[in-house]
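Moderator note: this is an archived Q&A kept for reference. The question asked for a predicted structure of one protein chain; the sequence and the answer are reproduced below.
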Amino acid sequence: QVQLVESGGGLVQAGGSLRLSCVASGRTFNLGIMGWFRQAPGKEREFVAAIRWSGSNPYYTDSVKGRFAMSRDNAKNTAYLQMNSLKPEDTAVYYCAARVGYCSGNGCADPKWYLYWGQGTQVTVSS
């Protein structure tokens, strides 16, 4: 089993920044990809970003490119999502997820392939 614990959410004004963290523990040796998804009230869960377990090849949905950056610290088994220039439409619960095996590009965007999920952290951006 793998456990994922997110932190770092909060309330921020438009144009501000937040950094989300996701700590992975347990049987992480066969994980290939870590991802971030978000879900706003009344909407489906949507892909935000993904990165290889090694920390290479980050991939982003178009709406966050140039504003968000995903990274990993292998020594700490932690993934990060640095979110800059936040907009009210970024308001959502953000979930960390992990999957076995690899993907690339849009292949990383489907939540059904992610086996492990965190509990979520709320991000609220005020206008």
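Archived answer notes: The mean pLDDT is 95.
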